[in-house]
Structure prediction request, 313 residues.
Amino acid sequence: MNIIFYHPTFDAKLWIDGITKRLPQANMRVWQAGDDQPADYALVWRPPHDMLASRTALKGIFALGAGVDAILAQEQHQPGTLPAGVPLLRLEDTGMSLQMQEYALAAVLRYFRRMDEYQLFQQQKQWHALVPHSRSDFTLGVLGAGVLGSSVAEALAGMQFTVRTWSRSAKSQAGVQSFYGDDQLAAFSTGCKVLINLLPNTPHTAGILNHQLFTNMQHNAYLINLGRGGHLAEGDLLRALDSGQIAAATLDVFTEEPLPAMHPFWSHPRVSITPHVGADTLPQEAMDSIVSNIVAIEEGREPAGQVDLIRGY
Ligand code: NAP
Ligand code: GLV
Prediction:
């Protein structure tokens, strides 16, 4: 079994050692320009067009992350990036759910407990107790109720918040109210105090964090974007911050990454930035999952995490 690997930043040796330890029959190599030798599987992130083009004999392409928007966009711009008929598989959870729960809880609790306001008081040496937010006025909306969104919703509901999710199809999750479909987006967002975005970036969801959505929320609401930068209409957010519609935003993902030095988000007093670290790919967990999927394919079973190329996630 031949496996090719390409990732712009990951430690290739760690991945080759880890996969071949789990699959001793595998010959795994880093793909380099000009390599057209046979391969059964590919493990990739933002692969060069030539790596996979015309490799229709592949049995599976494993994206080394949860979101596949970048590779699907590459295919749009350079058809053939993904060879026809080869399944594209993505990472499902592999340790990302817990990381997303941590991030979302930290951001929500910071706003709920008014930590930013107390920090400002501290700078002014002011001993001043604010009226606490009440849970009943602090409805949390999670956009996306898939692997990550549902796990974040579960963690927040576990903290006794009122939690809603929005997805394409209806969900049934204890302590969480499910909204679904475009028709229910307005009802979902109306009255939310916090929106946490965990949608995949697709043609249907691009730009969804926009003026209309912000207007549906409570005045002085909060935004936490953990999905992709392409979800956010950046100008709309800046205007909503100016008007007070949005009190503060926590942003992990951006249209352009790294965020350019001149970008107004960097210096906005009510925007918090992290450098796309909401949930990292954890190599050992990811390798366990990829290898169990390879074994499933070899044994003729359905692998997990298959991407629907038409839906875009
Ligand atoms: P997932 O399991 O595929 O879940 C996607 C969710 O979005 C599903 O609930 C889906 O609805 C919903 N959805 C998709 N299109 C929709 C539409 N048009 N209208 C309404 N709902 C829609 O994906 P995941 O594993 O949770 O990951 C979600 C995203 O998180 C990734 O795509 C990636 O962009 C982002 N992410 C970010 C980081 C980071 O570090 N910031 C790390 C990992 C992932 P259905 O359930 O009805 O299909
Ligand atoms: C990271 O953003 C991922 O999609 O895994």
Summary: Residues 96-273 form a domain with the Rossmann fold fold (CATH 3.40.50.720).
